[in-house]
Automatic annotation (TrEMBL):
It comes from the Bacteria. Transmembrane segments: none annotated. It holds the Pfam family DUF1989. Residues 1-22 are annotated as: Disordered. InterPro entries: DUF1989 (IPR018959). Residues 52-232 form the DUF1989 domain. The lineage of its organism: Bacteria, Pseudomonadati, Pseudomonadota, Alphaproteobacteria, Hyphomicrobiales. It comes from Rhizobium hainanense. This is DUF1989 domain-containing protein.
Length: 286
């Protein structure tokens, strides 16, 4: 890419570009998730509740600590935008940026969803994913990203010049407002960057722009999580459907999503240590 503001290339440009990459947070330094215990607990589960999230709408759900929850495709290829909060304290919520830094741009089995500072603890662990086979495709895309921020009416107005009221940001705000019996305006400030469930995304190789393509999800596919704390969740069935053409749309096919809550036998989790708030002493003045 060139422009009238191009700078001259220094003589040591290739040397500077040739420095080796260093992974910021090597995965081996994270405390490991006890996947053996979680996989054993999965074998004892009983479904206790479910919520249907209508197309182009949002819905809320609660998951007690030590339970599992699933997001399930039930009728057609559909992506969802997920928010999570500490059920007792909305100030502790999912931190997509730190989750991305600690794991990768896209998450899968064994990865965890981390909460905001100063809490910084695992909120949920991914325990099963029927799309785990997808990996990385020829375009460099993967499934379940923590890159995108969620479609919202403000960006829609900025780029298209019109108003659209079923963006995922709006759906999540309304779902939280209804759940907490607060105004949508108050709820909006608690809505945050999402886990894009089932969404297939990447960055273009030439311009490095965020792109989406049709999700590989099909009816019966699901992603499953283990709740490490008491959770309040909100899910938007994205108005982009499978996000293979556009989002914030009333014309593309959209389908409902199902959230299921599953309770394992308590004996299967005996001895499990659940995460506490981050131990960094804030009294040190940050």
């Amino acid at each position: 890419m060139s422009s009238s503001f191009d700078m001259p290339v220094p003589a040591d440009a290739e040397e500077r570009r040739g420095k080796p990459p260093v992974v910021v947070y090597p995965n081996g330094t994270l405390p490991p998730a006890d996947m053996d215990m979680l996989q054993a607990a999965r074998q004892t589960m009983t479904k206790t509740a479910e919520t249907i999230v209508a197309p182009r709408e949002g819905g809320s759900f609660r998951v007690p600590k030590g339970h599992f929850f699933r997001i399930v495709s039930v009728e057609g290829s559909q992506v969802g935008d997920l928010n999570l909060w500490n059920a007792a304290d909305l100030s502790e919520r999912f931190f997509s940026g730190k989750t991305r830094a600690l794991h990768a741009t896209h998450v899968g089995v064994g990865d965890r969803l981390w909460s905001t500072l100063p809490y910084l603890r695992s909120m949920a662990t991914i325990t099963h994913d029927t799309l785990g086979w997808y990996g990385w495709d020829a375009d460099g895309a993967g499934v379940h990203d923590v890159i995108g921020t969620r479609c919202d009416p403000y960006t829609n107005r900025l780029l298209k010049g019109d108003d659209y009221h079923h963006c995922c940001h709006s759906n999540l705000s309304r779902a939280l407002a209804k759940e907490m019996d607060i105004s949508v305006q108050e709820a909006e400030f608690h809505v945050h960057d999402v886990l894009n469930v089932f969404m297939c995304t990447g960055f273009t190789r030439d311009t490095h722009q965020y792109f989406m393509k049709a999700s590989p999800v099909r009816p019966g596919d699901f992603i499953e999580f283990f709740a490490e704390i008491d959770l309040l969740g909100a899910l938007s069935a994205c108005p982009g459907g499978d996000c293979g053409s556009e989002h914030s749309s009333d014309t593309v096919p959209c389908y409902p999503l199902l959230v299921e809550i599953w309770r394992p036998e308590p004996e299967s989790l005996v001895g499990r240590i659940f995460p506490e708030r981050n131990a960094y002493p804030r009294t040190h003045g940050l």
